[in-house]
Amino acid sequence: MRNFIGIEEKPPLISLILYGVQHVLAMFAGIVAVPLMVGAAMKLPADQMTILVQGALLTSGIGTLVQCIGIGSLGARLPICMGTAFVFISPFISIGTQLGIQAIFGAAIVGGIIEYIFSFFVWRVQRLFPPVVTGTVVILIGVGLMPLGFTWLAGGHGDLFGQPISFAIGVLVLVTLILINQFTKGFLPTISVVIAISTGYLAAGAAGILDLGAVSVSEWIAFPNVFAFGIPTFSLPAIFAVLVAQLASMLETVGDTYATGIAARKPIGRRELAGSISVDGLMSALATLFNGLSLTSFSQNIGVITITQVASRFAVAAGGVVLIVLGLVPKFAALVAAMPAPVLGGAALVMFGAIMGSGISQIREMPEFGQREIMILAISIALGMGFGMHPEGSLDKLPAFLAVILKSGVAVGGITAIILHKVLPHEQLEHKQSRIDKRVVDSK
C-alpha cells in the first residue's frame, strides 16, 4: 500500500516544490479564466487584462498560503487551494459593463467582509451539515466540474476544439496519470499529476500546437500597483448581486472543506470550518488591493490530494508560493499559460472523478442510510445537476439575484439537502417503510 503523507508532515524541499507545482498546474487555467472572461466582456485593453491576471495569480497565492499555514484564527490549516471564483463571473460582468470595474471591486470588498463576519458564527449552523448533506455537496462538486474537464479534453474553446490531436493528447495525459498512479511505487505516484501534465506539454510541443510566443515578450519582473484601476466605488445594486454570489461561493467552500477533510483524513470541526470561510471572505476583500477578483476554495485540488495521497498542508502552501512567484514573474506565468487545454483536460477528468468518488465514499460510511437519506440524496443531486447544467437561456427570465444562485448546481443541491435534512422526519419515513415491508410480507 502506498504511503499516505499526512497534513502535518513536511516533505523534503525538492518534493515540496514538485507537489506545489502540480497543484498550480491543476488550478492555473481556472485562476486565469475568470479575469480573462470578465476583462473580455468589459473590452479592457491588453495591458489592463494583464493587470487582472497578475492580480489573480498573486492574490490566489497569498490566499492559499494563509489558508494552509494560518494566521491566528484565520485559515483552516488544511491543504486547501484558493483561486478566483467562477460563481462571480456573471454578476461581475453585469456590474462591470454597467458601472465600471471600480464598482466590481467595491462590491467584492463588502461581500468579502460580510462573509468574514459570518465565519465567527458558522459553528452555530454546523449541525446543518451532516454526512448526507456534505457528501451530496461533494458529489455535486465533482459532477459539476466534469463538463469543464471534458471541454478541456476536447481542446477548449479555440481552434483545437474537437480536433483528433486534442483527444489524442488528452488521452495520453489521462493514461500516463493512471499508469504512474497505479503501477509505480515510492515517490513517483505522489507526483503523478505533474509527470502526466509535463508529458502532455511536451507532446503538444512535438505536435506543433504549443505556442510560446507570449513567453518571449513577457517581462521578467512586474510588481502590481495598489488599486491600479482607481479607488473602488460602492453601489447598492452591485453589492446585492455580489452578496448572492458570495453565498453560493461560501456553500461551495463548506463542501470543499469537508471534501478536503475526507481526502486528508482529518475530521472537520468548528475551527477548521470557521477558518476556511474566514479566508474565503477576508481574502476576497483584500484581493482588490492588488487588483484581484473574489477568491474561493478550488475543488480540483482535492482530486490531486486523493490521487497522489499527499495531504501535507505545507505541500499546498508551496503551491501558494509558486503562484506568488508567477504573479511577480510574468515570463514564468506565460510559460504555464501556454499549456494547451487538452493537456489539462486529461488530468482534470481523473481528478474531478476522484472528488465525486470521495463524496460517494463519505455517504457509504454513514452508520444509517435508509429511505430518508436516499430521498435527500436523490432530490438534491437531481436539482443540483438540473440547474447546474441548465440549457442556455433557460434562466434568463428570472430575477438576476435568483439566477446567480440557481446557476450554481452546488448551491442548489446544497440548499436542497439542508432543507430536506431539516424537514423530513426520521420516524415518519421509517414507519412508512415498515408498513411497506409488512405489506410485502403479507402478500407472500
Q: Write the H/E string, N to C.
A: HHEHHHHHHHHEHHHHHHHH
| Cα-to-Cα separation, first versus last residue | 48 Å
Spatial ordering of strands, largest sheet: 1-2
Q: What are the segments in which pLDDT stays under 50 over at least 5 consecutive residues? A: 428-433
Overview of this structure, please?
This protein has 444 residues and is mainly alpha-helical. The protein has helices spanning 13-41, 46-69, 89-99, 101-118, 131-153, 164-183, 192-206, 213-217, 236-264, 270-286, 300-308, 313-328, 330-337, 341-364, 371-388, 400-406, 409-423, 426-443, and strands at 82-84, 295-297. The chain contains 18 helices and two strands. Helix 1 (13-41) packs across helix 2, helix 4 (101-118) runs antiparallel to helix 10 (270-286) and helix 15 runs antiparallel to helix 17 (409-423). The longest helix is centred in the N-terminal third of the chain and has 29 residues, at 13-41.
